[in-house]
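Hi L.,

You mentioned the student needs an example of a multi-chain input paired with its predicted structure. This one should do, with 248 residues in total across all chains.
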Amino acid sequence: MANWVSGKVIQVHHWTEALMSLIVQAPVDKFTAGQFAKLALDIEGERVQRAYSYVNSPEDPNLEFYLVTVPEGKLSPNLSALTIGDEVLVTQQASGFFVLEEVPDATTLWMLSTGTAIGPFLSILQLGEDLERFENIVLVHAVRYANDLSYLPLMEKLVERYQGKLRIQTIVSRENHIGSLTGRIPALIENGALEKIVGLTITPKESHIMLCGNPQMVRDTQQLLKEQREMRKHLRRKPGHITSEQYW
Ligand SMILES: Cc1cc2nc3c(=O)[nH]c(=O)nc-3n(C[C@H](O)[C@H](O)[C@H](O)COP(=O)(O)OP(=O)(O)OC[C@H]3O[C@@H](n4cnc5c(N)ncnc54)[C@H](O)[C@@H]3O)c2cc1C
Ligand SMILES: NC(=O)c1ccc[n+]([C@@H]2O[C@H](COP(=O)([O-])OP(=O)(O)OC[C@H]3O[C@@H](n4cnc5c(N)ncnc54)[C@H](OP(=O)(O)O)[C@@H]3O)[C@@H](O)[C@H]2O)c1
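Structure written out for the whole complex:
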């Protein structure tokens, strides 16, 4: 049984009609960067709960969540209606294994995300611990429209902070946008465009890939990396090259 604590919404950013960030204060236990909490609202007498990744560093007391409104969804439209001062329930303890402790050493760490799943990577990068063991880090954010690149300013700030170690690349699938690749993650790996623009290659010897977000993207990318690059899922008992988290 989840242990719920009461959270108070202290800030809301509506980036687009469908995308928002909620900043919440709640007496939660310390989480590990990359983990998620569950948020819940009591809707018509029923507690509706879903998983949401922390975007903030665990050292930041303001809990940040990046949310997309799924039009027919049960919880997300209600979360998108929250305003400053409203209550939202948060699980006291965070969950999940999409954390650096589960990632083996590599020369290059690739962080590949779609949509709101950039969150765990921003938490890891904002904390900035345990990253010395990677020579390069590549953060990729793939979205439908350029307007959905809500955290691009933060991504650019992180590039400055990491002084050459971090490279970022945006991908936009449904329009052309200067500075972004056009298309989808697996296709842009398959045709070499992602590696070319970033200036690093994906090889089993040098790379570890973290995949987060759309489950079909996660599956398609894993399949491609297996077939084209001889890379496999990383397991504690059988080390590999890919760590993933699916959002639904
Ligand atoms: C580990 C984990 C972490 C997650 N972190 C986040 C997060 O940080 N931000 C976030 O917005 N969501 C996140 N999700 C998804 C979230 O838990 C809910 O599924 C989502 O908010 C939809 O809930 P709902 O009740 O509105 O829709 P439901 O009535 O549950 O409908 C679910 C359907 O909505 C679609 N869907 C669900 N989530 C998404 C999504 N993020 N993007 C696109 N389509 C989606 C899928 O088609 C899915 O079948 C995460 C899920 C998991 C498992
Ligand atoms: N983003 C918005 O502006 C918006 C607006 C209104 C409602 N919504 C709702 O929000 C939900 C989520 O939308 P989202 O845009 O955040 O997430 P999404 O649908 O997962 O799309 C994010 C990115 O992932 C890509 N993608 C999808 N399937 C893939 C696959 N198999 N392999 C590789 N890449 C893949 C998408 O490319 P493609 O474009 O090629 O699919 C897009 O670039 C949906 O239910 C949607 O109806 C979103």
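You could point out the following to them. The CA atoms of residues 150 and 212 lie 17 Å apart. The helical segments are 76-80, 119-127, 152-162, 185-190, 193-198, 215-229.

Best wishes,
N.
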